[in-house]
Amino acid sequence: MAWLGVLCLALLCGQASHAQAPTRLRAWNIHPDGYPVTEAMKGFAAQVARATQGRYQIEVFSNATLGDQPKAVQMLKSGEIDIAEFSSGPLSDAVPGIKVLNLPFLFTDSAHMFRHLDGALGQRFAANLQAAGFVVLGWYDGGGRSFYCANRAPANIRDLAGASIRVQQSEVFMEMIRLLDAKPVALPFKDVLGGFQQGAIDCAENNMPSYESTGHFKLAKSVYVTNHVISPEALVVSSALWARLSPEDRKAFSDAGAQSALLMRELWNRRVAQALENTARQGAQFVRVKDISPFVRRMAPLYSKYMADPTTREELLTIIAK
Ligand code: BDP
To answer: Ligand 1 center to residue 172 CA distance, Å?
Structure first.
């Protein structure tokens, strides 16, 4: 009977070590604590842990401590990180069709954008992303991006001519700035503040929660409210991780992702209002664009280019149609 005891012990030990050794996953995030993306990712991590009885423990590394966004896109592909939240700018390097999401004035507002992303178009983007190594678990809100400047107060797109404007390292954004007769300067997100301090850039463009959370509003007080790009962000896991998950665990991750996207969108709307109020109280000046048509006309070469491009044409037509 001794052998039975040994066997039982081995099984128990096996169970115990299984219970004691959860799979630890690393999640990359660019934003600080309290930011809607961060809070939604933490919610995602907590729900995955609950739904898998602690077998998966996700640690969220915030503030881009693991590297900047273009690097993190590569890290997710190579399996150095397992989960991340990316904006559509850097993601379009991996999947060219995503470029349409960076085009100016494509979506009228976030509701319009989510009608597409929560439907057939979102599924098509997700399928293309999955083929490139990224499994989308939720579409987050990237809000509307506007320009803000340190040493000029634009009230017209002509006022941006000649300015050095920081953009994400992304082709469409750079082309957009060139069409405004300005100079695109691609800087990692965390270097933008230094760029303003050292006078390397005159302006940048972002949504209001990031304008506030980064402290850019302290140096670049003139906001030209254009909302020129309304774009999504995506909570993704690597396809390497996805391939290792059982069907039940995949469901747990998917449900948690969908839940976190709803939370994010709700937190986002509140945060936009707070950011506007807070930055205005601390001296930010807002000039709203009166008529977007001159801006849209300037962008004509961009629309023609992506309409002619077979990787983006279909997506572009789908969005324009409704
Ligand atoms: C923020 C996005 C973040 C981008 C950043 C940027 O949430 O993913 O990296 O803008 O402009 O709004 O780099």
So the answer is: 15
